[in-house]
Amino acid sequence: MTRAEDPWSAPVAAGPLDAVVDVPGSKSLTNRYLLLAALAQTPTELVAPLHSRDADLMVGALRALGTQVEATGADGADLRVTARPLRGPATVDCGLAGTVMRFVPALAVLADGEVRLDGDERARERPMAPVVQGLRDLGAAIEAAEGPGGAAVLPLTVHGTGSLPGGSVDVDASGSSQFVSALLLAAPAYDLGVDLRHTGATLPSLPHIDMTVAVLRERGVTVEELDADGGPAGGQTGTAPTRWRVHPGPVAGGTVVVEPDLSNAGPFLAAALAAGGTVRVPRWPATTTQGGDALRDLLARMGAGVVLGDDGVLAVTGPADGAILGLDADLHEVGELAPTIAALCALAETPSRLRGIAHLRGHETDRLAALVAEITRLGGRARETDDGIEIDPAPLHGGIVQTYADHRMATFATILGLRVPGVQVVDIATTAKTVPDFPVMWEAMVAQRVRAD
Ligand SMILES: O=C(O)C1=C[C@@H](OP(=O)(O)O)[C@@H](O)[C@H](O)C1
Ligand SMILES: C=C(OP(=O)(O)O)C(=O)O
Questions:
Q1: ipTM value of the model?
Q2: pLDDT at residue 1 tops 60
Q3: Contact 67, 110 (CB under 8 A)
Q4: Is the CB of 292 under 6 A from ligand 1?
């Protein structure tokens, strides 16, 4: 008998795949649209949003603050969000969701009362200080627990007064782009908006900040992207912004259709390289702010055939001889993809170097340490560098892969399991953070094979 706590046996691919996989909605877009809907003047309809632990936690947070969120659509899959005056006292469970623990405090400062935020044990270790300090600099009163070196961490108590002055703020976002996104998202509702300057040496996941800017603009908010000297940046200018100015003003409601989560498409597309054959993902957007779109280039560089059809179906075909090419890549814009890419690197014929991802040490787990530990456990050769991981070709064997409550470590292990018999995955249920029913989806994909006749 299998118990929930038993490791899950990752299916081995019995032959090349010929699969179509419908990927659920984007976590990052869903949680941004939800948060902005709580500030909007008219109701917002989210079509095809993500339903997963992280999205449910955001819905729970909004409801705790008084926002009305109703399931709509034929099967209750869509959401209708109606803003109400934000209220405290309230308690918010952030789970292990970066988007909840970083974004919701910026909303909670607008509640009329005290809001307490806490999360999973590991959430209390994830970096929070720049958000807490940034909000304090913008006029908020927040009590925070102290982590290593006295840095602010969960749990937090936000003493909301119903409004926030806002204004200028300097933030070191070298630890996470979410520090910037958090302070920009609720900024239209602050008295003066926000003029935020990033002061750190590096800035990871810039596409996620571009996404924040795009979602704000879609909702009618004026946002300026500037370089360090105050000149225009972003968009067509070719200059990466380091400063953002969000003007105060109304947030529009209306209907938004949520794109599929392209980062979560990653393990399924990677399966085409690990198992051979072709995996197709429909509804791939022609243009997007999702960093996951970089998979098209990354997988092609590893030897895949990648075709985005006019019908919006992305087809990824593994190399005919099964030989995956190693990769030397700076992933700082798309660190979210690192575990998926690392799995393919561990199966590759040539060495790999993944760079620019030091900040992954503050993700759901220390992903650099976790990837090295689990590749090594299966007989592979990997080591940490200052800002990433190096992986050399080596034959892998089965084993029980630890996942550290990290959804992407679980999907990393399942990719390896397609080729390596005997891979067992501890706590496969952790994938529910961003993909409902991942094991069912995965087994259905593995069952869709090229026919022998
Ligand atoms: O804003 C967002 O929705 C996210 C930003 C990124 O965070 P980091 O900048 O911390 O990598 C990404 O990795 C995370 O999965 C989602
Ligand atoms: C880093 C991630 O999540 P979070 O939003 O919790 O930071 C992730 O999903 O890879």
A1: 0.99
A2: no
A3: no
A4: no
